[in-house]
Amino acid sequence: MRRNVAHLSQAERDAFVAAVRKADLLSYADGVSYWDKQDQIHQGTHNHNGPSFIPWHRELCNRFERLLQQVDPGVALHYWDWTQDPRAADDGNGGTVDLTTDNFFGTAGGLLQGVLAALHNGDQVQGSRDDTGNPADPPPAIKRFCDPGAPGVDSDAMILASGDALPQAQQWPAFRTALESSHNTAHGFFGPGSNIFDPHKSFEDPFVFLLHSNVDRLFAMWQTQPGREWRLDQAQVYGSETNSSGPRGILHNLQPWDGTVEFGSPIPPWTSGSTDIEIKNCRHPSVVTPPCYDSLPVSVTQIAPTAGLPLRFLDVAEGEQTARALRLRIRGCRQVTCQAAVKGDPAFTVLQSSVVTPDPQAYESHDVFVWVLFQPGLAGSSASGTLEVNVTETGDAFSIPIEANVIAKPTVASSMVLDRSGSMDAPSGVAGLKRIEVLRNSAPLFVHLLGDDDAVGVIQFDTDAAEAMPVEVAGGTIGGAGRTGALAAIAAHVTNPNGLTSIGDGLELAAAQLGKVSGFSSQATVVFTDGFETAAKFVADVAPLITSRVFAVGLGTAEQLNPVALGELVNSSGGYLLLTGQAGADDQIRLQKYYAQIIAGMTNSAIIVDPDGFVPIGGTAVEPYPLTEADSRSDVIVLTPYARALKVALEAPDRTRIDDTNGAELAATSHHQVLRLALPAPVMPGPVGGEWKAHLSIDPDELKRIISELEERGNREEINRIRTHGLPYTLAVQARSAIRMDVVVRQSSRLPGGDAQIRVSLAEAGIPLAHTVSVHAEISGPAAKPYVLPLPEVADGEFGEKLPTPVAGLYRVHLRAAGTSLRGEPFTREELRTIPVWNRVDDRIIVGDGHA
């Protein structure tokens, strides 16, 4: 902040003068000191009496201030209020101060003495720059012969209002003429024979920067007059002179920093070929933006909601905490504090009772968000209150009504579209299992993870499509009608050995199926296929009919599936496509993870952790995971081909033990277990937030049966692995939470040599989680070894980076986020994405012949 130099404390004055002295001891490469360079610049340019006079001197002051701050980051280029006598200036505390003492800026009458005397040659011409012609040498003398009293300048108010009555285009010419006139008077105040009096020697005296900082202060005050924001716009501030050219014109590049001068040779370091050269004119934002002065106003404007309107929480889902914000725009050079409180219904609270703006580095605007949290009650209820906000520094006060209503929890109706073409009888990569069997083992997890009020239907497709089950409400975890029907349809799903692959037929029938249902918050279609399209209808044929979000799972590689049309459909609908890649032993687990992630995305749940491990025989595997007070439900999912032999129990942060006997609901198949827990659980007295633990142990009787079955099949290798390591598992934890992680991946090209832009956003109840989260991606690609790609925060709660895709194949991206919630509680989030790249013409839809 540039301040009235007379208002500085003694310590601040000493630091300011010390910085000027040190600037004379540090030099550029040509041997000219930082201080002496200022006179060299002024000698080579002499920008006066024209449109660019004031902005050119702003650039000079800004650059000199940065040099001083290299010496002492705490100093600023303070100003002299030229309406006051520098020998008796108002000190801001009811007294006066002499700026011309030997321990400050020196004399008002005669040769400069004291702490700044080293800036001249002691009134000797010999050895001075006037003698040697070397700008690195000091001037012969620095002298002042100030007039008595204060300079006869116009008042600040007269200068600032000099053009206000004129049309907008004429205000700048009138203002800058009035300001330059008072500037000339101030120079003359130092008297004939003084350096400042002579325009060719004025920048040999450091007091000239106090004078020109005041010129710039008045320019800044003129720009920041309330109601005249156009003066901060580079296209409007200079009015009729905006496009003036020539050496004094607004569009003329600023010398000498552009590598040219008006008089003499270019000035180092801004010479030909130098990287220090900067080409800009007076319309550049760095010139138009005012520096911070202590006399500039601070304004507070309500941006949203529009003044007079309430802060509305419309149709908030039951149990889902939501946030809305009062948005204030603070413009000025000072930090301000907004004190906030809510009156009325206790369902409303403020996130922070005190919000402080960032420390501005120039006269700039910052938007302040005062967040109000709403904890909704039962569906059909409503609430009201008032947000009171007071801005301490300005006295501004805002009183905003708050309105809210609550609706039932959101529900989703989904259609599972499952491939039964002939190729589904091919080996899967999982030992002894066909692709159709892997599908039947994986898809039930999707059904078990549905909410009780969600709905599901099943479509089968090969050459044609058929409805295996209409859309029905899932119902309870155990015995729900829709859940039971969908599981039965999946179990009965078999191949048509002669069937081709018509994904379009399946999508069309799913759209018709979903079109018959209503009363759900959203709809989603989930496609599973193992090959590219070989029969009409094709995806492109039916894409206009699809109104739901579409998610797709592909068993195979990009070359095998050619997912161009399907990929475009899912991306445009708000879904995504996941591929397994080359067939392998992990395909079944991978498909289960994909289905679990898709249902999480459909139901606004979040993936918290996803570790792998072994449950030792006779022991217990313990997997910790964090939950927060923002979480309203958790699903602990255990994936393993030996699910029937595992026992799962949960441990809350208060050490309460929870399983399917005292509050959790269990859904299980031979390939997975899901332990669902509504939060907060009645059985636990303590808080939800904190470290939870999943305890996995082995049922010895079931283990014996598994070993016996493996012996019958002669699988000694698997028996030895189990006896050595235990039973393998993958554990995934999902939470219905106010903390959301959204992921978008966009490829520049599907051909090798392109890249994929990864964008991740994290928010709690709609509030961006800024500066409290770190995000990285674990990348496994077709060529390089797995590696970690950090995602920097590019905006509040937004993280992004480009992933190069140099060779063909499948790139697996495992995104992990870790941070703290709005309440300071630790949390984690994870998601998977796959990026297909292949050596075919980009974006070409390949149609094959024969079986898929």
Automatic annotation (TrEMBL):
Residue span(s) of domain VWFA = 413-598
A GO molecular function annotation here is: oxidoreductase activity
Give the record's keywords alphabetically.
Copper, Metal-binding
Q: List the SMART domains hit by this protein, alphabetically.
A: VWA
Q: Does the keyword Metal-binding apply?
A: yes
Pfam family of this protein, just one? VWA_2
tRNA-binding as a keyword?
no
Q: Which PROSITE patterns match?
A: VWFA
Q: Which InterPro entries match?
A: Di-copper_centre_dom_sf (IPR008922), Tyrosinase/Hemocyanin (IPR050316), Tyrosinase_Cu-bd (IPR002227), VWF_A (IPR002035), vWFA_dom_sf (IPR036465)
Q: What cofactor does this protein call for?
A: Cu(2+)
Please state which protein family the record places this protein in.
Belongs to the tyrosinase family.
Q: Which PANTHER family match?
A: TYROSINASE FAMILY MEMBER (PTHR11474), TYROSINASE-LIKE PROTEIN TYR-1-RELATED (PTHR11474:SF126)
Output this protein's name.
VWFA domain-containing protein
Q: What is the lineage of its organism?
A: Bacteria, Bacillati, Actinomycetota, Actinomycetes, Streptosporangiales
